[in-house]
Design a protein that fits this description.
single chain; 472 residues; alpha/beta; Rossmann fold; N-(1-d-carboxylethyl)-l-norvaline Dehydrogenase, domain 2; 3 domains; ten-stranded mixed beta sheet; nine-stranded mixed beta sheet; 35% helix; 27% strand; elongated
């Protein structure tokens, strides 16, 4: 018997997959929100590279609904909402034993993140839930109007042992008949980590750097940061769940993205539209799991801090102004950056500017206080970088501080030693602490030793040395 489908969330993802199923002859019930009246009158339009189509109840076995309680029972419920709306699942999902529940119903979460199935399982029970990972380039470009760009394949997997594989195989067969490549995987957790290998860098950096995927891949500096984030996710997968993601998979993700049509990620589109971004599902949960497993996800933390500063609803308290010194000396082997080793990490000279202190004076004061260097001149300011720094697990709003890092490129005006010891001066909490000052190559692996919160500033400085850019 043919399966029937309910689509919870008819956006870029639900609109495309539901449209494909309806176009292939499956009965599909669509739940819409703000687009309901428009779609009732005009139908659901899906543009594709080869033309496109419109789904209406007159031309297809489809129905459109404005409330969840009006959606008829279905064999398969596809959750196509962003995880930022998962608090609505108790209201939206049919529940076992009620009139809206059909015996044998499977709820499939087509969502981002590490464990999105848990929210659905809390409503309907683990034995009824499966997960789906979507690799799709699709955008919602207007009311009831979806633009499909590229890819689209799905990987399905059981959330708990009680899920029958034959039902998942039947769902996968329906998708394939609808023109969507779909496979059933034995290990859903491993599959989710593998998707995070792509999602963490590309979704995160698309907002932080305001770049589409093609521009990220074309910039050697950004590509280097993408690879660093991918390797951190792979390390987290191993530490947290014992899943091995090898270097060949990372390289394949890079190759796939290079071949992809220029694409704005879902997080970038949400940010541009002023909507809540999936910061926690895509990066925050993986970051906390990685940290708790004892790894050092420095690149993820830096990206996470930048994203939270750009998140809708972030605390709007005045930002603390931080003056950061990117002091460069020229050597026969290329430019080198001044850093100092403090406690268990390496950082560039920086600190808070006084309320009325000019930033160009603050950066020179910080340089003297933290390294003892006065033989330096300011060359030019860098683009400010906002951060939302946190203590604890990153969810405690009372323990957050908004910062803006104002970086400056400086150059030495006289020779300085390769290394030296310095005792920090000034009135801050670090005053009197001894640190070791040294130089690291501006380009190359040594830069990875640096506090990742300084990375966007370093990236800007590296961009000024186009003749010294690495091959990537």
């Amino acid at each position: 018997m043919a399966l029937t489908y309910a689509i919870l969330g008819t956006g870029a993802l639900g609109g495309y997959y539901g449209g494909q199923l309806a176009k292939s002859g499956r009965r599909v019930h669509f739940l819409l929100n703000s687009d309901y009246e428009h779609v009732q009158q005009q139908g659901l339009r899906v543009d594709t590279p080869d033309g496109g189509y419109t789904i209406t109840p007159d031309t297809h076995d489809a129905s459109f609904h404005g409330t969840a309680h009006d959606v008829p029972p279905a064999d398969v419920v596809l959750i196509c909402l962003k995880t930022t709306h998962n608090q609505l699942l108790p209201e939206l999902l049919p529940k076992p034993g009620t009139a809206r529940w059909k015996p044998g119903t499977v709820v499939v979460t087509l969502q981002n993140g590490l464990h999105p199935e848990r929210d659905a399982a809390a409503v309907v029970g683990e034995e009824h839930v499966a997960g789906g990972l979507c690799f799709l380039c699709s955008n919602k470009v207007g009311p009831g109007h979806i633009s499909y760009l590229d890819y689209g394949f799905i990987k399905l997997g059981a959330h708990a042992p009680g899920m029958h594989r034959d039902r998942l195989a039947q769902i996968a067969a329906d998708f394939r008949e609808a023109g969507v490549s779909c496979d059933v995987v034995d290990d859903l957790v491993e599959a989710r980590w593998k998707k995070l290998v792509w999602n963490v860098p590309y979704n995160g950096l698309s907002v932080v750097l305001n770049l589409t995927t093609d521009k990220m891949m074309a910039d050697p500096d950004v590509r280097e940061r993408v690879v660093a984030l991918m390797r951190e996710v792979a390390a987290a997968a191993k530490a947290v769940d014992g899943k091995t993601i090898d270097e060949a998979f990372i390289q394949q993700m890079l190759t796939n993205t290079e071949k992809m049509a220029p694409y704005k990620t879902s997080m970038m589109l949400d940010h541009e539209a002023g909507r809540a971004m999936e910061v926690e599902a895509i990066i925050g949960d993986a970051l906390r799991a990685s940290r708790d497993a004892g790894t050092d996800p420095r690149w993820m933390y830096g990206t996470y801090a930048e994203l939270r500063a750009n998140q809708r609803g972030a605390p709007r308290a005045p930002a603390v102004r931080k003056a950061a010194a990117c002091l460069i000396r020229e050597t026969p082997d290329g430019p080198e950056l001044l850093v100092f080793d403090h406690a268990n990490h390496t950082q560039i000279p920086k600190g808070s500017a006084e309320p009325d202190e000019p930033l160009h004076q603050a950066v020179r004061r910080e340089l003297v206080e933290e390294t003892g260097v006065s033989a330096a001149t300011v060359v030019e300011p860098l683009k400010p970088v906002p951060y939302l720094t946190t203590c604890g697990d990153g969810r405690d709003e009372a323990r957050q501080e908004r910062q803006t890092w104002f970086g400056f490129l400086l150059r030495t005006t006289e020779p300085l030693p390769d290394t030296w010891e310095h005792r920090i001066t000034g009135v801050g909490e670090d005053s009197g602490i001894s640190v070791r000052c040294r130089w690291i190559p501006l380009f190359g692996p040594a830069s990875a030793d640096l506090d990742t919160l300084a990375w966007p500033l370093i990236c800007q400085v590296r961009g000024l040395y186009t003749g010294h850019r690495p091959d990537g």
